[in-house]
Amino acid sequence: MPNSAGLLSRRGVVSGTDAPAVALLKKAGAIPLAVTNCSELCMWLESHNHLYGITRNPYDTRRIPGGSSGGEGSILASGGSVVGVGSDIGGSIRMPAFFNGIFGHKPTPECDLFGAVPAQVVRRLEADLGVTVQEVPLPQLRYSHHIWLDCMASPNQHGELPVPFAELMGDGSRKVWPLWELLKWLLGRSPHTLPAIGLALVDKVLGSQPSRFIGQQKEQLQVRVEQLLGSDGVLLYPPHPRVAPEHHVPVFTPFDFSYTGVFNILGLPVTQCPLGLGEQRLPLGVQVVAGKLQDRLCLAVARHLERAFGGWRDPGAP
Questions:
Q1: Angle at which helices 295-309 and 119-129 pack, to 10 degrees?
Q2: Which structural domains are found in the chain, ordered by start?
Q3: How does pLDDT run across 13-46, given as a tens digit for each residue?
């Protein structure tokens, strides 16, 4: 199947082997149907690139389906497939799941599988399950996007620095200069999308110098959240500050991804749960976060919320 990652330079590239997740699904009896659209190099919350164009939300085609796995979210919400696979570095499964009203799960990294929450959700959990609900102040969350960016620029556990994003854009075949690409984009001559160019510029400016203060905020948040969750607690957290925005609007609010991205840095399992449709007939939803290796807990709570609020709704229904 095609393996372009939304890059024009990878047009016609076909995978020679299955990724582990795909191989496991095939072994379990799944039949791959297609590779769906994504943002350029899977690093933006709109699924748009110069190779396959723009992907639309089945509930309102003027709006985005999210990203980076927005094509997958769109086809699943439309009933074109029953299950999909995506990446999730900063919310690339959970944002499309939210915008398209379907389930999405980001597992604990160590698993072998390789704002405000609506008050009725909390009340329902109290009434149906008898759980103890507590509103918890987590002031470190105000630094969510700083924490994500700081960790992305830091060396990994082996001491290796991350590959510069501009180098990934070149796909190993050419040098990409972000400022030059921005000038070309303004003239309509760049093969890259504006979000990818912007990310390359941010990456170049930030470099790989971690902030001591942000590192401290991350550690404090990690300890606090893990203490709160333990082995039997869940955190309900909004996936985004608003329902699916219209196309190209996210470029003006680029850090909204931090509502999902912060949990990648904390290494916690998260299930994005659909909660039916709102007044604009656009999907509503909530993130259910659990402690490390407690994936079964956030999945179980999400399943209960599905029963209580209706879960997925057919975008074509009157």
A1: 100
A2: 1-145+212-318 (3.90.1300.10), 155-209 (no CATH)
A3: 998 899 888 999 999 999 999 999 999 999 899 9
